[in-house]
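Researcher: We're teaching a course module on how sequence relates to structure. For the next exercise, students receive a sequence and then see the predicted structure as C-alpha cells, so they can try to spot secondary structure elements on their own. Here is the exercise chain.
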Amino acid sequence: MCTGAGADEDAIAPGHLIAPGIITAPAFPGIERIEAQFSGNAFEPHRHDTYALGVTIKGVQTFSYRGERRFSMPGQVIVLHPDEEHDGGAGTDDGLQYRMLYLEPSLLLDCLEAAGIGLPFVDQPVISDPLLAETLLAALSEMDRALDELFVDDFVSRVAGGLARHARTPQRPLGSIAWKRARLARDYLEAHATRSVTSGELEAVTGLDRFALARHFRAAFATSPHRYLLMRRLQQARAMIGAGEGLSGVAAATGFADQSHLTRHFKKAYGVTPGQWAALRTDGLRRAFPQGPSGGR
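Model: And here is the predicted structure for the students to work with:
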C-alpha cells in the first residue's frame, strides 16, 4: 500500500495514472495522497515512517499486519502505524481500488499536545467508522488539487480525534467555547474572503494555535474556517452570476483557481452547476416579470 519499492517519484506527475495503476496527488508538507487500482498482490512486505490512513473504494483489500491476514471491504477505514511491516493486494479476482494518505506523526503530535496525550495506537487496522471514512475522503476526493492550509488544520484535528477515540485515549473535552476568538477568526475570514488566508494569519488574529482554533471554530459555528471561507466565496460568486457576469471572471474574482474549480464547489454546495443556477434564476425572473422587470407600469 505505497507507490512501490524503487519507484521513480520524480517521474510521477501529480494527477496522472502510472503503472500499476497509482495516481499521486500534489503533496502538502507532512501529507502524501494516492489512489490505487490493481489486481493480485501488488506490494511486497515493507514499512512506512508515517501513519497510512485510507478507505477501500471497490473490491476487497487484503494485507498481512501484526501477524494476521486482514481484509477491508468498501467503505471501511485502514489504519497502519509507522514502522509496522505490511504487504498489500486484492483479495478477489475482481480487483481493488482504494485511496490512501500518508500522515507524518509530527502533524498529529502537534495537534494532540494541547490535549495532553501522545500519538494514538489503534490496535485494529480495519475499522468500520463512516465518520472517519468521510473525514479521510474529504482529503482524498480531489486528487488533482493541492490541499488548502486551513483545510488541513481542521482535517488533522478531526483525524486526531478519530484515531484517539479508536485508541481509547479520547481527547479531553473542549471546555468553554472561545467565542470572542472564534468571532475574530470569522470576521477576518469574511473581510478577506476572496483570497487565500493562512493559518498563521488566524493564529495572529485570535491568539490560538491552528488546531485549537479549528476545534473552537467548529464548536462555535458548526463548520471549519476553511469551509466558512469557501461558502463566503460561493455566496459572492452566486451574486455575481446573478448579475450576469461571466463564469471565468467570477471564478477569478472570488478566489477560485479556475472555472472548473468554481463549478465543482458550487455544485457540491448548491446541487446545481453555476450555469444551471443562472438559467433557473433567469427562468424564474421571466415568469415573475413576463414583460421585463418594469413591465405593466
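Model: If you want an answer key for the exercise: The CA atoms of residues 78 and 126 lie 5 Å apart. Confidence is low (pLDDT under 50) at residues 2-19.
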